[in-house]
Amino acid sequence: MQLNSVIANKGVVQLGYWAKPQINQPVTLGNLHLLPSSNRVKVDGVPILLRPMEFRLLHFFMTNPDEVHTREYLLKKIWGGWVIVNSRTVDVHIRRLRITLQPFGLDQWVQTVHCRGYLFSSESKKEISIY
């Protein structure tokens, strides 16, 4: 029996997109709630429809908040090593995620850190200082 199937049977981890382990625990940050087991996102109880990559990005960001991640790191973690895409692909999906979060005032949580990458934080941009 493979380790993945043993872990999955215990309910600790489920296999996510493209057979990558994905933690199955709900994640909450402020009024934003992500439910990995059902691929659902809600803001104040209102469901948000996300495409698969934007869902994966949001899940990654919510489980790794307040950390700067480069495009290359996001490509490796979200898309995996076997997919050949341009690093600007990340920008496209970040923009889509921001557009989806904008009606709820959460688009500013996905922040660009000049010459570094992206940061997900519920703090406003003015309060964050990265050196």
Question: What tags apply to this protein structure?
Answer:
131 residues, alpha+beta, Arc Repressor Mutant, subunit A, four-stranded antiparallel sheet, three-stranded antiparallel sheet, 4 helices, 9 strands, 32% helix
Describe this structure in words.
The chain has a single domain, classed as Winged helix-like DNA-binding domain superfamily/Winged helix DNA-binding domain (Arc Repressor Mutant, subunit A), CATH 1.10.10.10. Helix content is 32%, strand content 23%. It has four helices and nine strands. Strand 3 and strand 4 form a beta hairpin. Helix 2 packs across helix 3. The longest helix is centred in the C-terminal third of the chain and has 14 residues. It starts with a helix and ends in an 11-residue tail after the last strand. The relative contact order is 0.14.
β-strand amount = 15-25%
Shape: globular
Q: Give the name of the CATH superfamily.
A: Winged helix-like DNA-binding domain superfamily/Winged helix DNA-binding domain
Structural class computed from helices and strand pairing: alpha+beta
The average pLDDT is: 80
As residue ranges, the low-confidence spans are 1-21
Q: What is the subunit arrangement here?
A: single chain
> Helical content, roughly?
25-40%
Spatial arrangement of strands, main beta sheet:
3-4-5-6
Distance between the termini: 48 Å
Please report the number of helical segments. Answer: 4
Count of distinct structural domains: 1
State the total count of DSSP E strands.
9
